[in-house]
Amino acid sequence: MRAVIVAMAVAIVLGASPATAAADPGASPLDLADPSVGGLDPALRTAVQNAATAAASEGVTMTITSGWRSPQFQQQLLDDAVVTYGSLAAARRYVQTPEMSKHVIGQAVDVGGTGADQWLDANGSRFGLCRIYANEIWHFELATDATGVCPPLLPDAAS
After folding, report:
1. Contact by Cβ (8 Å): 36, 66
2. What is the pTM assigned to this prediction?
3. Rounded to an integer, what distance in angstroms lies between the CA atom of residue 121 and that of residue 30?
4. What is d(CA 77, CA 83) in angstroms, rounded to the nearest whole number?
5. Is the Cβ–Cβ distance between 97 and 74 less than 8 Å?
6. Strand, helix or coil for residue 88
7. What is residue 32's DSSP assignment?
8. What are residue 112's DSSP bridge partners?
9. Which residues are in the D-alanyl-D-alanine carboxypeptidase-like core domain (predicted)?
10. What is the pLDDT of residues 76-130, one digit of tens each?
11. What are the chain's domains?
12. Residue 128 burial (CB < 10 Å; 0-12/13-18/19+)?
């Protein structure tokens, strides 16, 4: 139990969700006490909360697997990706630098829950939410234009 508490405390300091540290599939979009939710830009947070409510009415549970991240946590994710993918160039396809990450400024969210990413991909523009990268079905940002249309997908985070 002590190890779980320590992991959660470290996660909070680094900007990760304590739910993620405890191997939970994600935080409720309504859980403002979770830094990954509470640290989101208010407009994005409201859009995700509204989308999650609409999804729930259709039987789809949406969670936030990653929202706001500290620069230190973002750097750790990038460092881990370099090890996983073998180079900075390969890692950058999946993980932005802290200086470029929309997560660090609270303007990006990764969603979880069975079917939530597909639901949001099909319905997110109603809430201003758009999938940004072709290789990340879970990553969304407020990005619709004035007519409510999402921009074309970028191939990956390095684009």
Report:
1. yes
2. 0.83
3. 20
4. 10
5. yes
6. helix
7. T
8. 63
9. 40-124
10. 999 999 999 999 999 999 999 999 999 999 999 999 999 999 999 999 999 999 9
11. 2-70+100-142 (3.30.1380.10)
12. buried
